[in-house]
């Protein structure tokens, strides 16, 4: 089994509501020989408030994180949170400009000469690497039989999308999660809202918009006939989950789980170990669909 | 009435100086507005916002609800045929509004300010403390049943907040003394 060390940026949400995303990510990576290294004293990535009203703060936060990654000797940082990924990537693109780099160096108090070499990737991109996805397949203990999944990427796992990056997934019809979960035997459905927005951080400061967006996503996911929605972002997860919780008495319920929890189950971890017992919507009515690989 | 625009408006130059966009490249196709994630609650979509910048409508824009209903989803700029960085442009307009003494506070400004305050002190955000701080400013707490279900499932962070290193605190100090970096991406 190949071992690979990658810098890991969990972000604030994965220490809170999205803890099961963190736990299952660590289990999956551990099993297939990826050593996740958390940069010491990482700080908030800046999404959404810092970039919304204080750009200098945002770039300082991003630059310091990228510096900590570089200092730890890594040239790649992966973030499971789509907002962290997107905002760190935005900062890294901005820091390609030597003038900006110099200003940021002064604020961070370190020489940021090398930060432009750090590449920022979402966890989906890391796990989609050919040798890594092969390793997942080799370690599979169980497969999903007849489990219908829709993959919900949300807006920021795939944006900003650089045309110049040949490895980047499509932002309109992304495939990385479909392929990862398809390889576990699941029936991955095509649907319309793969990379639409869930309303993001607005859920905390005026939920109207988040309700409009999540209702649409849930309606389309249910219409596709899916048993479960797989997500790759803590904000998508909490927005969908909270909306379902509020509609419990009225609407049809559908489990919303992190894609790493499904990978974890296939790799032999239990429902409890991957944190599916912590979800608000009963997440394993389809347990019988897990069969020995 | 026909309107003839000659040269760039003052607002256009100001915005272009602050962020890396070329407003003139906009062909007013409306692709941005067509896919905008905040559009139901905006009085002007992103296409109109570009037009209002050209028309020098500073007051209308900075007082608009639209700039606060943008959720920074990047869908507009991803699809824009002229590659205009609309998401950065929206950030810039929000920052301009925050700096303008005439801007009235709203739920979003209040949220962002509390969030930033927390990040500046702890280096990270802390969901449960943020929820409590928001409720003290008048935002209703999440429904009781939801809070109860989250607590029994051990989803709520009860750890004390992070304590950042000195290097972090110094960086924040430099920023507060007025260090700044212009907008970009
Ligand atoms: S998509 Fe781009 S070119 Fe079209 S109206 Fe919007 S900003 Fe202008
Ligand atoms: S980034 Fe803002 S303006 Fe652009 S599509 Fe998303 S919500 Fe609309």
Q: Can you give a write-up of this model?
A:
The complex is a heterodimer of chains A (293) and B (185). With 293 residues, chain A is an alpha/beta fold. Chain A has 2 domains: 4-123, Glutathione S-transferase Yfyf (Class Pi), Chain A, domain 2, CATH 1.20.1050.140; 141-292, Rossmann fold. Helices cover 40% and strands 13% of the residues of chain A. Chain A has 11 helices and 10 strands. Chain A has a 4-stranded parallel β-sheet. In chain A, strands 7-6-8-9 form a 4-stranded parallel β-sheet, sandwiched between helices. In chain A, helix 3 packs across helix 5 (98-108). Chain A is globular and about 55 Å long. Chain B has 185 residues and is mainly alpha-helical. Chain B has 2 domains: 10-99, no CATH class; 107-176, no CATH class. Chain B is 52% helix and 0% strand. Chain B has 11 helices and no strands. Chain B is globular and about 60 Å long. The two termini of chain B are 37 Å apart. The model of chain B has no long low-confidence stretch (mean pLDDT 93). Classes of the chains: A alpha/beta (293), B mainly alpha (185). Bound molecules: iron/sulfur cluster (2 copies).
